[in-house]
Design brief:
The chain has 321 residues and is α/β, with parallel strands linked by helices. Helices cover 41% and strands 18% of the residues. The strands form 2 sheets. Strands 3-2-1-4-5-10-11 form a 7-stranded mixed beta sheet, with helices on both faces. Strands 7-8-6-9 form a 4-stranded parallel beta sheet, sandwiched between helices. Helix 2 crosses helix 3. The protein binds 6-O-phosphono-beta-D-fructofuranose. The site of 6-O-phosphono-beta-D-fructofuranose has 10 residues, from loops.
Length: 321
């Protein structure tokens, strides 16, 4: 136990993700039980710099486990890369007698935590993002819920595609990570998944549609990962080269909301407790992750150097069905 740590701060930063509240719940409850106080830093690094910091009690986190979003609020603050801006944040931490910070978010959030730790504030990162784009963990908090939201939505889209004998192109989030597209595509019987610019092959897509039509298939769903191929480009190709009536759906921010799945809640609780334990052991500049059943801590510097995730184990299935 690190006796220097009497009070910790917790913040959520970057895009919100279902399960962030479950992580906050676990951090607050476990810290209080370990005899240390907790403050919530509102709206990520922006709130830190502006001094929006509130104490968090046992009751403040009651009943938040099943709520989507983050009770602390979140923001993106590109200016936090500036050391002078971080100095202001550190002064706010000192003013509130906060000895260490747990930062929940994606890789941008981790970088903020790393820079703070280099300036003497112990920080631990917890992976909270729907994108699943953090290589130091198998799954990020929020990914499973988001995947299920996409699957629910595409099941509905399939009903109408089926009734009208249409081809519907569905764009999903994920930033530059293909995991949401690949896994939702497989789970929804998508006829074609475009998860990267490189894997998109116009002729292959048209051929797949043709072969399916010859077997009697009338409805088609194409899953498209954002930031790969413009959705209306695909629509045009379908319109000009098939007898199908294409429609486009960009799922958008519905993918970020909703009650977290049981998987995300359990993951968040385990990672939140682990993050507090690491702080109490005097660790800093690390991020927590989960592989199989094991919890792991990786230096943020090393985590950022790991190759980006490419859903390797799932990818081959795309071509086999
Ligand atoms: O990182 C989460 C995420 O939802 C990405 O999937 C998406 O590209 C981005 O955030 C959208 O950001 P914003 O909510 O700022 O439009």
């Amino acid at each position: 136990m690190n006796h220097q740590i009497k009070k910790i701060g917790v913040l959520t930063s970057g895009g919100d993700a279902p399960g962030m509240n479950a992580a906050i719940y676990a951090i607050v409850r476990h810290a209080l039980k370990s005899g240390i106080e907790v403050c919530g830093i509102l709206d990520g690094y922006k709130g830190l710099v502006e001094g929006h910091i509130v104490p968090l009690t046992y009751n403040d986190v009651s009943g938040i486990m099943n709520r989507g979003g983050t009770i602390l609020g979140t923001a993106r603050l590109p200016e936090f890369t500036d050391a002078e801006v971080r100095e202001i944040g550190i002064k706010q931490l000192q003013k509130n007698q906060i000895d260490a910070v747990i930062c929940i978010g994606g890789d941008g959030t981790y970088m903020g935590g790393l820079r703070l730790s280099e300036m003497g504030i112990p920080c631990i990162g917890v992976p909270g993002t729907i994108d699943n784009d953090i290589p130091s963990t198998e799954f990020t908090i929020g990914f499973d819920t988001c995947l299920n939201t996409i699957v629910d939505s595409v099941d509905k889209i399939r009903d109408t595609a089926n009734s009208h004998h249409r081809c519907i192109i569905v764009e999903v989030m994920g930033r530059f990570c293909p995991d949401l597209a690949i896994r939702s595509g497989l789970a929804c019987e998508s006829e074609y998944i475009i998860y990267s610019k490189e894997n998109y092959n116009e002729q292959e897509m048209l051929q797949t549609i043709k072969e399916n039509q010859e077997k009697g298939k009338k409805d088609f769903v194409i899953i498209l990962a954002e930031h790969t191929v413009p959705i209306h480009e695909i629509e045009k190709v379908i319109k000009e080269n098939t007898n199908l009536e294409p429609r486009c759906t960009v799922l958008g921010h519905v993918q970020r909301g909703g009650r977290p799945s049981a998987f995300d809640r359990v993951l968040a609780v385990r990672l939140g407790i682990y993050a507090v334990d690491l702080i109490l052991q005097g660790e800093t500049g690390k991020c927590v992750g989960h592989f199989g059943e094991e919890l792991v801590a990786t230096e943020i510097l090393k985590a950022n150097e790991l190759p980006k995730k490419q859903a390797q184990e799932i990818k081959p299935c795309v071509k086999k069905i």
